[in-house]
Amino acid sequence: MLLYLLFFAALIIGFVISTRRHFGSILPPYRADGQHGVLQVRRYPRLVVAEVRVSGNAQQALSTGSKLLNKYFREEQIARFALPLLAEKVDAADAIWTMAALLPMELSAAPAPRNKAIQLKELAPQRVFARHFHGSVADDDRLARQKAEMLPLVNDLCRRLECTKLSTVVVMHRYPWWFPSLFRVSDLMVRVTDDAA
């Protein structure tokens, strides 16, 4: 019995390691420009994304956005999950979110979505302050706590580096919705300017 349990545990560990390695390999590249406590200064290059606007709480937005973007990826035979997924709340009053999945191709080569709610676009190169979060941030209360902890640190670092915030906290979901929360890692990011503004 013990051998069966050890074998089963080894399979789970192997699956988790393999899955994390796979999804880690499709993260967008960036240049690290320094570490300030828990915050890392990153510079991302131009990125091509498929973006859709959805409404609801954080969990509903993640679920709806993932389904719509995964369907686009399947219909156009883009051979992977619609990940990583950038989730940004753009209207606090009406709980409107943009959900953007990174595309593994240039904008000119990306197939036009059949669903007109999905827009293809380029994100300009950007500078962000980022930190890792272990566990799920799909829950509204948990995300609110993370924002409350992170934004004062961002404000302080902006004063020291003489920059200005360009966004609220953007969540980069690295893994699909079914990946266990115990093993999830997300990137919490705030876009900032390069110079004093």
UniProtKB/TrEMBL annotation:
Instruction: Name the chain's protein.
Output: Soul heme-binding protein
Family (UniProt):
Belongs to the HEBP family.
Write the signal peptide boundaries.
none
Which InterPro entries does the entry mention? Reg_factor_effector_dom_sf, SOUL_heme-bd
The scientific name of the source species is Chrysochromulina tobinii
Q: Which Pfam families match?
A: SOUL (PF04832)
